[in-house]
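agent> call fold_tool(seq_1)
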Amino acid sequence: MEKRRIWAVRAGSFGQADHIFLGLNQIAISFAESGGDVSRLPAARSAFRDAVSASHASTAPTQANQLFRFLHEMRIGDYVIYPRKSDRTLHWGEVTGPYIFDRERSNEFAHRRGVEWLAKLSRDVFSQGALYEIGSILTLFEVKSFASEFLRKFAAASQDSGLLPEEEDMEEAAARDVSETTRDFIARRIRTDLKGYPLEPFVADLFRAMGYQSHATRGVRDDGIDVIAHKDELGIEPPIIKIQVKAQESNIAADVVKAFLRHGP
């Protein structure tokens, strides 16, 4: 049996298609530049993309690729996640129909598929990693890295309606969305711009901002100690904090931690 894939689909930059998603039980994408029904275009990805570009040169290749996936890769029975901005919930559904082109609304999210919504959960019940994955700016993309977490939690949600908190005030929800977006942006910048040695002076600066005297030990033999922080000017009165900085995605090995502890006071 073919594995059921998990897709994330957005309802527009500002949730413009929310009434289609939840009111009509359809997922929809809006690339007006694609020019009408795309079901008759070639079924090979490169030929499909070329055909879309030939008819509407302003259509970005990424949009053509998303249309191709919506038409040819998404299957009836696949799962769908709809991140709803207005109330910070994630809606979980199952694709129930083939691709259709709504000719009466050709300029408004006309590329559609039927969906049955099965559950919804607050963003707050998911790990930060899972939220990062669905934070893509693409309209349509496949969820892979945290697929098991979404499957597990939505399966539990279908049996436990108490997991979803009461809907928040719109202003409060918007403020929290801004806060989450800011945290995600800062985390991404730290991961990309402060890998390796650049992270050490950043950590030293962070401790100075918290009222410590601190300095990075780069350029000297530090025996695994990258930053030293203390409250007094001379650094002779406790507490003296010794910090080893690691810039990596994986877990720190136990041997590294044990070696660092041997340098303690």
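agent> call fold_tool(seq_2)
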Amino acid sequence: MQVPVYSLTGEVVKHTEISEQVFGVPFNEAVVHQAVVRQRANARQGTANTKTRSEVAGSGRKLYRQKHTGLARAGNRKSPLRRGGGVTFGPKPRSYRQAMPKKMRRLALRCVLSAKARDGELKVLEQLELDEPRTKEMAKILSALEVDSSSLIVTDEPKDNVIKSARNLTRIKTMPANLINVIDILSHKMLLMTEAAVRKTEQLWGERLLQGGKRASV
């Protein structure tokens, strides 16, 4: 698959080949949906905690006598029916983590990367190097690339000047290639990747041929 490579001034300087195994995979909605649900569930802390009537501080004495008061037959003040009492079936600390096979996680990532390439929402940059952190310079680069929507900028390695230049721009996020994930890619309209980041992504999430013609995930 051939895609154009842009300079920081927005000009097409050449075309490069990208892997069909990573950027040309048919979209599998079920796998992508499962990956999104799993990632969001695994991000939950699960620390919510409420006290039951046995854990609430207070007297266990019966509030008033059982009969001849004209009131309900009340027990103690820790009842869930009373203000300050325990909580019925309230949340307790728990783990929300979900498991997902590695092959399915890799497939989900390939699916969203392929969708970006197929929809014209992937732009490959020849390089992205800044001499100093300047938000104005990053905004100028995005304007030259005709990027006016939310964007995810992916580099091969963390670059301090790029990170600092983009962090004050709304709807712009930067990350290295080894940390890309399904939710971040889907949450941003455009995906900007340096050519080095594309190669690293292919190396991390692509496949290689083994002896005998069999394919194995890298």
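agent> summarizing second result for user.
Residues 45-95 form one domain. The helical segments are 20-23, 29-42, 102-118, 135-144, 160-166, 182-187, 195-205.
agent> awaiting next instruction.
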